[in-house]
Amino acid sequence: MFFSNALINLHMLEAARLAGVDRFLSVSTVGVYPKDCAVPTPEEDGFKGEPEASGYGYGWAKRLAEVQSRCYAQEYGMKIAIVRPYNVYGPRMDFNPETAPVISAQIMKVLAAQDVLTVWGNGEQTRSFTYVSDEVDGMMLAVEKHPVADPLNIGTSEEIKIKDLIEMIVRISGKKLRIEYDVTKPSGAARRCPDISKPMRLIGYKPKVRLAEGLRETINWYKTYIASAS
Question: What is the pLDDT of residue 229?
């Protein structure tokens, strides 16, 4: 993970420099933050301590990309925006059972379940999920209004417990399921939610799509283009 992502970052930004690209978007990750970061998490916590162990190599590769961005902005005067996406979801997201993130994984499990749905952990941990159109809007605003190699969280302050997320997916899907929580399995970090006051102030970023609406769009897309083709 570290080797592949570091090479992608290094070569893309150098190629942009050589080609005289006017503005560059450096896409970092929430994975740069340490496990014990403040919640809601401010951008200043991005280089405190070590990245969380589950994404250690990826987190360091993206920290490297941010450092390279700052160096290229200072050395060559390049206009570079840095964004840290937070749990992006929506139509066309990864629905591969082996690699799917939490929302697409749970949509697949809910729609495939008959009577009982088993969820890892106790469901009390909270997360913040960003609909794809809001993420794209934030990225474009960052390139337009803040291309100064200074990281911005692009996410939403709408925080939800995983158990409430599961219940919402079940309800939107129209299923009747009994949900069981396997507390012998890991739950992950207790909380994950960004502080988005900085991008709101500097670039006028404001997420528009509420979680229930975004889930409905994502579930409908999955039913139409993935489930129906299986």
Answer: 75
